[in-house]
């Protein structure tokens, strides 16, 4: 189908609802062919979709849920989507070349181990997302093991992806505490963080979950 023909076809389609939930978007992009679909739709046809179809909500959510994330341990696709579950998620974005990142990770690991023993009544998960090469990540983790899962961002625009998580500058380290199903709570912490900051933010998010 030629682009002009495709344009007309889209014009003749009924408007799609913009009330597309984040969980539905995540399920769509968790399928095996999501990278191909993302390339075809959001790279080639994004201007067409944005002009002719009501997909503003989908396009806005795409940078976060369509991101290229893999588990470092097995290189399988990963996601930060929490669905409808009332839980708190701590995401620490880092790189081996970032000195403050390397410095804070042992404390983050100890904090997470202690936090898991708190039993707040609300599930608390944590993940580190590395913006780095697999070999460099493996080498670092051999000397500084952590107790939370490590993911890797493998896409082409980490700055845009971090913007979707609430980082306006793209600087590292960057930590976000989020609870999408609990009043859409989100707190971003730029720079090196302390265990006290994490504890306070997680307590706030957990309170939101219990209240809801």
Automatic annotation (TrEMBL):
Protein species of origin: Eikenella corrodens ATCC 23834
Q: Which PROSITE patterns match?
A: THIOREDOXIN_1 (PS00194), THIOREDOXIN_2 (PS51352)
Q: What is the designated name of this protein?
A: Antioxidant, AhpC/TSA family
Q: Where in the cell is it found?
A: Cell envelope
As recorded in UniProt, coiled-coil segments are: none
> What is the top-level taxon of the source organism?
Bacteria
| Pfam families found in the cross-reference section | AhpC-TSA (PF00578)
InterPro entries per the UniProt record, alphabetical: AhpC/TSA (IPR000866), Thioredoxin-like_sf (IPR036249), Thioredoxin_CS (IPR017937), Thioredoxin_domain (IPR013766), Thioredoxin_ResA/DsbE_sf (IPR050553)
- Where is each Thioredoxin domain found? 58-207
Q: Which GO terms describe its biological process?
A: cytochrome complex assembly
Question: Could you tell me one molecular function GO term of this UniProt entry?
Answer: peroxidase activity
| EC numbers on record | 1.11.1.15
Which is one Gene Ontology cellular component term of this protein?
A: cell envelope
- What keywords appear on the UniProt entry? Cytochrome c-type biogenesis, Disulfide bond, Oxidoreductase, Peroxidase, Redox-active center
């Amino acid at each position: 189908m030629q682009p002009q023909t495709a344009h007309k076809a889209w014009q003749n389609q009924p408007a799609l609802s913009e009330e597309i939930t984040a969980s539905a978007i995540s399920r769509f992009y968790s399928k095996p062919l999501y990278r191909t679909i993302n390339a075809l739709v959001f790279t080639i046809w994004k201007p067409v979709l944005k002009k002719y179809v009501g997909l503003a909500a989908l396009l806005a959510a795409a940078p976060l849920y369509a991101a290229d994330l893999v588990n470092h341990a097995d290189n399988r696709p990963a996601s930060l989507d929490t669905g409808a579950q009332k839980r708190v998620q701590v995401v620490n974005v880092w790189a081996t070349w970032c000195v403050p990142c390397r410095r804070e990770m042992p404390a983050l690991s100890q904090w997470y181990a202690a936090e898991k023993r708190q039993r707040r009544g609300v599930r608390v998960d944590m993940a580190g997302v590395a913006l780095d090469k697999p070999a460099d990540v493996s080498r670092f983790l051999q000397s500084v093991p952590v107790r939370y899962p490590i993911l890797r961002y493998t896409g082409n625009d980490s700055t845009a992806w971090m913007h979707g998580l609430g980082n306006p500058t793209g600087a590292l380290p960057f930590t976000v505490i989020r609870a999408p199903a609990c009043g859409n709570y989100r707190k971003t912490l730029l720079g090196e963080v302390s265990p006290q900051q994490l504890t306070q933010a997680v307590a706030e998010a957990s309170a939101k979950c219990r209240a809801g």
